[in-house]
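Researcher: Let's run the pair from yesterday's discussion. Sequence first, then tokens, for each.
Model: Starting with the first of the pair.
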Amino acid sequence: MTTTRPATRAPAADAPVARVLPLLGVPHLDREFDYLVPESLTRQALPGTRVRVRFAGRLVDGFVIARSEESEHRGELAWLERVVSPEAVLTPALFGLVESVARRWMGMRSDVIRLAVPPRHAAAEKSVPGPLEPLGVTTGPVELPEGWDDHPMVTRFLEAATSGIPARAVWTAPPGRDWATALASLADSVRRRGLQVLLIVPDQRDVDRLTEACRAAVGGGAAGRDLVADLSAGVGPSARYRRWLRATRGHARIVVGTRSAVFAPLPELGLIVLHDDGDDSFVEPRAPYPHTREVAVQRSLLDETPLMFSSVDRTPEVAEYVRSGWAHEVRPRTGLIRELAPRVIAVTDADPIQARDVAGGRTRLPAVALTMAREAIDVDAPVLVQVPRKGYIPTLLCGSCRAPSRCRQCNGPIRAGRMDEVYGPVDLACGWCGAPETGFRCVACGSRALRAGVVGAGRTAEELGRMFPGVRVRTSRGGETLDSVPAAPAIIVSTPGAEPVAEGGYGAALLLDSWALLGRPDLRAVQKALRLWIGAAGLVRPAEEGGRVFLSADSESPVSQALVRWAPQAWAERELADRAEVGFPPAVHMIAVDGPATALSEFLDGFRLIDRVEVLGPVDLPEGEELPGQEQIEDPERLLLRIPPADLPVVVTEVRAFVVGRSGRRSSEPVRVRLDPIHIG
């Protein structure tokens, strides 16, 4: 190996070659390159550190992956220009996770690193004490965490987790139970055994709530500030990096954060908890678009770290983990749900007035709902009114039973090219495969009638103010959310997910305009509706204390019965079976390839595994989807690949090879690939 270097620069005496991954952002250059380490930087240029190197004549950022005595490259090697920071932030375990995520989601490691490692702030590095010596795991019997007396199985899970066994558990929070307090108690129990805990939640509101609960669980005051760190973009880049360093150096023992926190390289990690995996916030909007739930699963497999999924509902993906035996459910004692759940009343055909009022659209508050609200206010309890957000895209429903219309070939959503005032929807075609629909018949009831789906309702605060004079009406929505409300007569109008907690629980909850949620052209529309309903209904007092819930949905539908019986687990199992029957995720995987028609044609012409997948489309890119560089494309399209789980590894390798090949040829047309997108079409 020969080099050209100034006389003042000499290679390091020990391991002079650094293997560096430059952060170039180009798929065909997503690989390591060898550089010479000057003797002056040898103690700082350690594996995992940030460096600056010269590539194609310009200085770029990179990470040292390894050091070696010699290089396999036979030509001249460039010098490592600078060590940005001696902090080894890209640990071997984190780099392994980065590679796993990039491989599965067909992306670049440089993109995943940007998601996993926060930007550096020199002042933060100086203000945080050095790495803490390992505390060591405490042995002996595990005590039942405070507040978990009605979940005796949690002791077995904690015993396995603190013994180094990669246990995986699923916990569904009972109605009325403060999930934040329960998870904080669980985390504190693991912390007292000498281990760190990573808690991941969807948004800043949940971060604040869970952080407060964790600090109270560890004793509050200075102990709470020292032992608990929250990682989220809302605290600012400098503070976030400082807290990230405190966690990765072992000082913070309980770490609470949003989706990027799943990558945090904690040295003594004993448990990962991911709460509310059905929230869309867990889908990374930047390439390679990984889902935090699946990243947590990848990390649990690679590092053999115990993992718990918690939520108020159950997604089919988590139901599959339970069904396969990969994870085990932490069940409550028999009868607990019945004791804590409110009474739920849904629209029923047995009551003609109720069914006509809601289904006919003559009023959004039928008599039974108004009665519930008045009775709750009479006992000085607040009332929660949940209304869907505006702006949902209309879809087509069966004109008789309102089931979403589905394609006979691929089970995709049927869409109307135009709406006629007299004849209704015309020019029908599938939104996935593009097949025309000339003879629609509902698979649920056999009806041939179609109607436009219900669009999100408007604000109802003024209407309720007129109905309940003298009662305070408040709203909680978007950026104007309420955290809590007192135990006093009031009506709280909230959009889904923004419901405040009521002291002592709500006396009643009215879940209105259900079809605005159920009628969305989305594979997960029913799943999301149940999650939002059960989240709101869980804030209501138990039935024994007068708590009641009104649901404006057909009482005979499976999703309504799941809420009435408070059985989200049973619904998820049924939904999993239904999706397996028609070929929907998670029973199969789907890859969406978005781009101009010429690029999709090129992809199909060169795709060598066509016999292992089912190709759907191409069709127009769904409304609301944005493609990078879309302004340069007149008519972007989408191609869907339906893939059996066993064939996923070879298919993603082939698709990524296509992306890398286009990058190497410097193709100017933008193409995006995503694995299991939340919105299929």
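Model: Moving on to the second of the pair.
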Amino acid sequence: MQSEKLLLEMQGVSKHFPGVRALHEITFDVRAGEVHGLVGENGAGKSTLMGVASGALQATEGTVRIDGTEVSADPDLARELGLAIVRQEPALMPDLSVAENLYLGLPHARRPSLSGLNDWARKLLLHWSDDVSIDPRDHITTLNPEQRFIVEIVKALECEPKVLVLDEPTEHLATEDVKRLFDRVRKVTARGASVVYISHRIREVQAIADRLTVLRDGEGQGTYPARELNEDQIVSLIVGGDLDRTFPDKATPGHHETVLATQEFSGPGFSNVSLQVRAGEILGLAGIDANGQREFMRALAGIHRGHGHLTLSGKDIQIRSSQGAKALGISYLPGDRHREGIFPELSIRENFSIRSAHEDTRLGLVSSRVEQGRTREAIRQFAVKTPNGETPIQSLSGGNQQKVVLSSVLAMKPKVLLVDEPTQGVDVGARAEIYRVIREAARAGVAVILVSSDQQEVAGLSDHVAIFSRGRVVEMLTGDRVTEDNITASVLKSTEQRDKHHKSLGAFWKWAAGNSAPLIMVGLAIALLGAVAGAWNPYYLSPRSLSNMMTLAATLAIVAYGQQFLMLVSGIDLSVGPTMGLVQVVASFFLLSGAAGGDQALGWMLVLVVAAVVGFVNWLLVEGLRLHPMVATLATFMAVQAVSLFLRPVPGGMLDGQLMNALNTKVGIVPVTFIAAVVLALVMEYVLFRRSLGVSMRGLGSRQEAARTAGIRPVMVRLIAYVGCSIFAGLAAITMFAQVGIGDPRAGISYTLGSIAAVVIGGASLFGGRGSFIGALLGAIFITQVNSVTVFLRLSQEWQQYLLGFLILASVALYSKSREKVVQA
């Protein structure tokens, strides 16, 4: 039962982005125990308003209070006060497991121990459904859109929020999961909490909400009891007047040429599909999600492989790839706009022209004039709301993004247009325009195949509708029989319950995409190479030879740990080699035989301080000046090297003999430095997977915005990473004392590329979010082993590069292919 207590209050909230007024003096409140609907067109400001409420965005003006406490641009505080948000695009970190994402999504006080994380996460998922098909150990990237939304919803519900914000929560959910969601919403309000429900589906909002607020162009249009307004009145408030919500006229009956026909066509998720689509007509594919209709369309687009008989304009064809489909004149509008439709970092012009770049080419070169002219015409024709074509597409509303993608696909001048969820996440105003464009394309002679989870949309647009169930076409509706009621009745009659989606991914590829694959692969390579070298030259496996290799591997491993530490957060440090040299030079002035105790102590302090200062400077360049990490650390590389050469133009300063003897100590044949490297690897691996710092670093590297909304502070985590990387380089320099013995400014230069190679061989991603300290240790051992083997086998120096290059390519290729298989499965 709702009360007058306000759990969320927003007074006079305005938000300005450069050149855009997103919100203007919005007043919005949510009472305890109520569901408050928030509706409006895409770009009206709904998600921005909730971004301000959740602390993800800083309001330009106005105040926000959660349960009476004022908050401002602090996601952590908003979560601690009881606000949880399920975003339209789930704020999940793809390189982390389901369990780790659930863990980071909770306030610190509610997080469990990482030691039993998977069991804890499995119990949470079972709270959603007894037959949930999500393994808590799976990485988010392996999940389909519906499963990602379920994880996001489960994460928010586990917070037991006082205010739960649901932003387009049902767009990817099947009917049974929508019912589950509504049941959870009612339980949330029954305990006195509140729900903000954002959706373009007006009937859905009216069914669940107590009150609703309408936004238009960043301004409030009033708050009303949800059931006192009818659907047309709400639409009028949303668009600022009456809206023609009828669908365009359908194709006129008559003889039309068959453009595309399938006969006994089968593939992953569908079988024996025989259909045909004619010029000027729209063929709709309907059915409960994951019953084969979308998989069939993606096979026609060349994304998945199908087999069977296909004809295009009467000629037999084969579709082996998306490029092949495009060459045949088959264009595809993807349903997952965020992941497959747009290039978020590019402009509208680039997103529009990229699929039809040949149209802009003159004499082998892209004509800027032609490209800009075509972009302006597309913006005009498709009524895209934007200042100009150079606007980054990610700054547009969802509806305008969809219109840009649709215009880009149609610019390819297709014979067949495949349309997957044309209006998903699109407001009611933009939908009418998209419907008009699709029908006009059909009238121009294009054969259109349409998939939509909205039965009314399928009925209103399609001339014929094929009903899919369990991967087969079970009924065809045509003419007057194409109605929403008939489609719904056919779907329900054909399939009593939804078949859950299971990814058909081979065990090998799933293993290859995991964290253990690089470790096992490098371990096998080390064993194989050692066996070959030992058989060829028995001295290779002698105690002295093995001890020397371990000594060299220890230094490379420790500096590689620093590189790995930084790569986890999408960074890279080219200055680690010169940093090692500078530490060596500094030590050569203080850590000398006969030096006073005070000088020795000062020397040890300076060794660590100098390394930390280099890391801090790198962090300032990257975070403060916004330089790319490679540019910033390359500049530091040269600066640090210059300082070292200034201090020691030529090598000099013999280090303390007792110190070098201590560093050369062995336990049996194993150097203490190698033992230290192994212990460090195990400790850091534990931190990486069993401590919140490690999970936070991987999350930040996996997806920064999702990590930030989970309460991870990117600036501070990167500071730890950059300083930590340089400190590891300093520690590696200490192990190098015994190998060099004097202050040599060039001693560490070769370790820069070696450290990068070691972590890549060990399974790290240059894009962040993935890696292993044990993998970095194995990578260092393998590199050292290759350098040694080429000497023992009397191979030329280039063989070092051949062997290392081969393993690096093999590691990256296997990982990339496995991830591709996982995503496509």
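Researcher: Give me one sentence on the second I can quote.
Model: The radius of gyration is 31 Å.
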